């Protein structure tokens, strides 16, 4: 199984500042057949189901604000929130869907400083 | 509007069984894979199992393979997760999700508690 490791486990950022979450996979998520990275990012607020933010490492879902962005390739990926808003407080997970089981990272808790 | 509604959670004794259901609406059910994911108290998300569009192929994580069975019914636009030989560590909120590889829409979840 592919192991996903996020860093840090928790992060406190001031409103309006940048938040950066890293995700590393134990093997490459880049497909040679379509040159796509099979990596997704989710936001999980308390009492709500997870929400898909980004697929293919950098493709934002409809309705996700453009201050949220994903980058990276191969085994190293980053989720960036460029200007933190109060509604961004949540736990963020990366997930690989390169091969089943489609494992998640352990999560990063994002809070307001 | 895409909707997924889980049901069937509750309290069960260790070694017991439970069947979770997932009612889907607002999309063409037969066009998507269906996946189950859980979150134990204080823990992260754990991907459990997925099933393809016509129910002919399924994949499981090691921790539930042989104990859990995923299925779906195109006639009722629903999915199920049959859980046998339940253990205390299976206590969690269980989510069903529409999967486009990745999981694009999720239900609200149903709580399963395994305790004597």
Model description:
The complex is a heterodimer of chains A (113) and B (116). Helices cover 0% and strands 46% of the residues of chain A. Chain A is mostly beta strands. In chain A, strands 2-10-9-4-5-6 form a 6-stranded mixed sheet, with no helix packed on it. In chain A, strands 1-3-8-7 form a 4-stranded antiparallel sheet, with no helix packed on it. In chain A, a hairpin with a 6-residue loop joins strand 4 (39-44) and strand 5. The termini of chain A are far apart. With 116 residues, chain B is mainly beta. Helices cover 0% and strands 53% of the residues of chain B. Chain B is built from no helices and 11 strands. Chain B has strands at 3-7, 10-12, 18-25, 33-39, 45-51, 58-60, 68-73, 78-83, 92-99, 103-106, 110-114. In chain B, strands 2, 4, 5, 6, 9, 10 and 11 form a 7-stranded mixed sheet that branches. A 4-stranded antiparallel sheet of chain B has the order 1-3-8-7, with no helix packed on it. Chain B starts with a strand and ends with a strand. The mean pLDDT of chain B is 97. The interface between A and B is medium-sized, with 24 and 22 residues.
Most extensive chain contact? A-B, 24 and 22 residues
Averaged pLDDT of chain B: 97
Which bin fits the share of residues in helices of chain A? under 10%
Head-to-tail CA distance between termini of chain B? 40 Å
Distance between the termini of chain A: 36 Å
- Number of H- or I-type helical stretches of chain A: 0
Biggest sheet features of chain B? 7 strands, mixed
Shape field of chain B:
globular
Question: What's the multimeric state?
Answer: heterodimer
The ordered H/E elements of chain A are: EEEEEEEEEE
Figure out the total of helices of chain B: 0
Which bin fits the share of residues in helices of chain B? under 10%
Structural class of chain A: mainly beta
Label the overall shape of chain A.
globular
Q: Please give the number of β-strands of chain B.
A: 11
């Amino acid at each position: 199984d592919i192991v996903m490791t996020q860093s840090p486990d928790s992060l406190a950022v001031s409103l309006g500042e940048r938040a950066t979450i890293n995700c590393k996979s134990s093997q490459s998520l880049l497909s040679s057949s379509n040159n796509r990275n099979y990596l997704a990012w989710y936001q999980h607020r308390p009492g709500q189901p997870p929400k898909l933010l980004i697929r293919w490492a950098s493709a934002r879902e409809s309705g996700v604000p453009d201050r949220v962005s994903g980058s990276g390739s191969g085994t190293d990926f980053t989720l960036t929130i460029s200007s933190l808003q109060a509604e961004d407080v949540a736990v963020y997970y990366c997930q690989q869907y390169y091969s089943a089981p489609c494992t998640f990272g352990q999560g990063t808790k994002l809070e307001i400083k | 509007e895409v909707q997924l509604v889980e049901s069937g959670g509750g309290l069960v004794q260790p070694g017991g069984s439970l069947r979770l259901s997932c009612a889907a609406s607002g999309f063409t059910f037969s066009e998507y894979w269906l996946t189950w994911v859980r979150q134990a108290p204080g823990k992260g998300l754990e991907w459990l199992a997925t099933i393809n569009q016509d129910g002919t192929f399924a994949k499981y994580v090691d921790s539930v393979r042989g104990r859990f069975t995923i299925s779906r019914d195109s006639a009722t636009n629903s999915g199920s997760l049959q859980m046998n030989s339940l253990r205390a560590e299976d206590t969690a909120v269980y989510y069903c999700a529409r999967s486009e590889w990745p999981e694009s829409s999720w239900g609200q979840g149903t709580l399963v508690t395994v305790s004597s």
